[in-house]
Write a structure and sequence with these properties.
alpha/beta, five-stranded parallel sheet, two-stranded antiparallel sheet, 16 helices, 9 strands, globular, binds adenosine-5'-triphosphate, binds magnesium ion
Length: 384
């Protein structure tokens, strides 16, 4: 009788203990924020290194010159520019050309951004001189201003008026910073928009432009080809991956609390796997950290994290794989396994043009060599 009572109590307590443990573990991970961040602009404690780049951009902003910043996707362009601009304390506006559908849309977005930093009242006298008057509405709930132009023939006039407003609202002593992201899209928005923009920018002296782009070959063509309107428009800066030593310190410091013994080797293994890619390193570290919080009993946490990420994306990878040509598949397999491109089957010129196409599409990047952009896709290829 006693024994059965004891065992019931014991079993009951055990269940309670397990539940409490689960609860406290979940609470712990809810309360503690993941110290790694990926996918958006990183600032403050999530931002590491880039000291030289930030200084360089800042000195640029002190001059009347413009800056062109190129890197493959997710290397940290927006983050490094955001940091430098913030430190400068200057007023800035920012438009991503990937989200722009027409010239009047570009004009409206530039104007809307300006209203974000300058009250309309201070700009009203400029706007009354516009040749096409915009519709300006204010959302009473969000307080956001919306701007649109009636569809009209005179889109060139609209853009010119808005761009000259940006110029006239500032001065040589107080220049506005205009950041145009994914600038290579200028070639897609409307024919000859590059020519028109350049002609207007030529007249401006109260603006520092920072033009960002991730399509290496298009950006290089825009700024390095003699016949391009933007030929030598600004200084060209190429952002590299993060330096290993600094990134290693960043990762290991943050992993230390959960992985007292393994944090050194984990940081090293992450950087070996991602080859110091800013986004993928943060993504993998975030996953490893989360496993440490939710499944601390996991044996090989590094392999488990990679497996989880690859499995999550495997359907996308399968679809992606089907979209590649036979030559591209052959190249990707060689890149994944680090095998040279020696072939009697494919001509060197065929290999080169397939590589260029994949680079243009962002699947392959060129740093000091060609490599697969996404290390998890590479891992999927090695397992397939
Ligand atoms: N200085 C940094 N320190 C730590 N992580 C960084 C840094 N810069 C970038 N990252 C990582 O890379 C991710 C992408 O950064 P960001 O959006 O600035 O890059 P991007 O080049 O502008 O990307 P996109 O090509 O998508 O516009 C960030 O979310 C972060 O995880
Ligand atoms: Mg960006």
């Amino acid at each position: 009788m006693d024994i059965s009572k004891k065992s019931t109590t014991f079993a009951g307590e055990n269940v309670l203990e397990t539940e409490d443990y689960e609860k406290s573990r979940n609470e712990k991970s809810r309360n503690m924020e993941n110290p790694f961040k990926f996918g958006t602009i990183v600032e403050e404690q999530y931002f590491t290194d880039r000291k030289e780049e930030v200084d360089y951009i800042r000195t640029f902003l002190d001059s009347p010159n413009h800056l062109v910043l190129i890197s493959p996707r997710r290397f940290g362009k927006s983050s490094v520019v955001a940091k430098a601009v913030k430190l400068s304390g200057r007023e800035y506006i920012q438009v991503n050309l990937q989200q722009i559908t027409s010239v009047s849309d570009l004009s409206a977005q530039l104007l809307r951004e300006l209203f974000r930093i300058r009250p309309i009242e201070r700009l009203r006298h400029f706007i009354t001189h516009f040749r096409v008057i915009p519709t300006i509405t204010s959302n009473p709930i969000t307080g956001m201003i919306d701007v649109s132009f009636q569809p009209s023939q005179s889109t060139n006039t609209i853009l010119e008026d808005v761009m000259m407003l940006l110029e006239n609202a500032y001065s040589e002593d107080n220049r506005l910073i205009v950041i145009l992201d994914e600038f290579q899209e200028i070639l897609e928005i409307a024919p000859a928009l590059d020519k028109q923009l350049r002609a207007i920018m030529q007249q401006q002296t109260h603006i520092n432009y920072i033009l960002l782009g991730s399509q290496e070959s298009m950006m290089t063509d825009i700024f390095e080809k003699k016949k391009s309107p933007f030929y030598h428009f600004g200084a060209l800066m190429r952002l590299k991956k993060l330096p290993r030593e600094d990134f290693y310190n960043y990762l290991s410091e943050r992993l230390q609390a959960s992985y007292h013994e393994q944090y050194h080797s984990l940081a090293n293994r992450i950087l070996d796997f991602t080859d110091c890619h800013p986004y993928y390193s943060q993504q993998l570290a975030a996953h490893i950290w989360q496993i440490g919080q939710l499944q601390p009993e996991t044996k090989d946490v590094f392999t488990a994290a990679i497996q989880e990420i690859v499995t999550t994306h495997s359907l996308d990878y399968e679809r992606l794989w089907m979209h590649f040509s036979r030559t591209s598949k052959w190249i990707l397999q060689r890149l994944a396994s680090n095998t040279p491109f020696n072939s009697s089957e494919y001509k060197q010129s065929t290999i080169y043009s397939a590589l260029k196409k994949m680079q243009h599409e962002g699947y392959v990047i060129y740093t000091d060599r060609y490599e697969i952009e996404d290390p998890f896709f590479k891992q999927w290829l090695l397992r397939a």
